[in-house]
Amino acid sequence: GAGVSQSPRYKVAKRGQDVALRCDPISGHVSLFWYQQALGQGPEFLTYFQNEAQLDKSGLPSDRFFAERPEGSVSTLKIQRTQQEDSAVYLCASSLVGGQTYGYTFGSGTRLTVV
Amino acid sequence: TQLLEQSPQFLSIQEGENLTVYCNSSSVFSSLQWYRQEPGEGPVLLVTVVTGGEVKKLKRLTFQFGDARKDSSLHITAAQPGDTGLYLCAGRTTDSWGKLQFGAGTQVVVTP
Predict the structure, then answer these.
(1) Residue B51 DSSP SS3
(2) What is the pLDDT of residues A5-55, one digit of tens each?
(3) Cβ A4 vs Cβ A25: under 8 Å
(4) A77, A86, A95, A103: which is closest to A30 by C-alpha?
(5) Nearest CA to B96 among A90, A11, A56, A18?
(6) Distance (Å) from the C-alpha of residue A105 to the closest C-alpha of chain B?
(7) For chain B, is the Cβ count within 10 Å smaller at the N or the C terminus?
(8) For the segment A19-33, what is each residue's pLDDT rounded down to a tens digit?
């Protein structure tokens, strides 16, 4: 597609509920990244894929967070047993390659509210 | 603790004024980028700088990368209301090229 597409745009979850957030990167983009952005803050790194391989998951806050990209294109970020502190905007970004000078193209994000 | 410290956190100016936003770190970066983010949208890349001392100009925006590659600045000349947004600097350290780390951002508001 023309840009990075994320769905849903908004998600309200009851505490303890599991959620799945989807990211469709730009076709042909090798690298895919997930970030978490709290209100008034910059994005915080969660995890990074190159094709289907998850190369870095050091930013995932707990073992309740899990990400996958099984065929090297669409990615899903799953959060189990959601907590109120998980409320944030979850941003997905992709880039053509993982080189130093390439910028990311971000999606518009999924705003998760845990009540 | 943010690896990249941005200042000021908030800046409100009138149309036609100039402004400068700073991005500082104690770490050395192999590359540094600036993004602008508007409400409800993802960040949009403005520029990438890779060489210490590098200066890049994009119309009314001037970006500078420090000689030691630890800091950067963004200067806007004759700001316009369309420049309003959250300005984010982001960098890759030499040992984590796959991971772009962001500062907390500077919220810029330009009033007519």
Answers:
(1) coil
(2) 999 999 999 999 999 999 999 998 999 999 999 998 999 999 999 999 999
(3) yes
(4) A95
(5) A56
(6) 7
(7) N
(8) 999 999 999 899 999
Token pair of B56 as six digits: 């890049």
- Residues of chain B positioned with their CB less than 8 A from the CB of A98: 97-98
Contact A61, A75 (CB under 8 A): no
Q: Which of B109, B36, B48, B64 is nearest to A101 (CA)?
A: B48
Coil, helix or strand at residue A15: coil
The residue assigned the tokens 């130093």 is A100
What percent of chain A is helix, strand and coil (3-state, nearest 5)? 5, 50, 50
Coil vs helix vs strand at A24: strand
Pairing of strands B85-93, B106-111: antiparallel
Whether residues B30 and A100 touch (CB distance < 8 A) is answered with yes
Query: Is B4 strand, coil or helix?
Result: coil
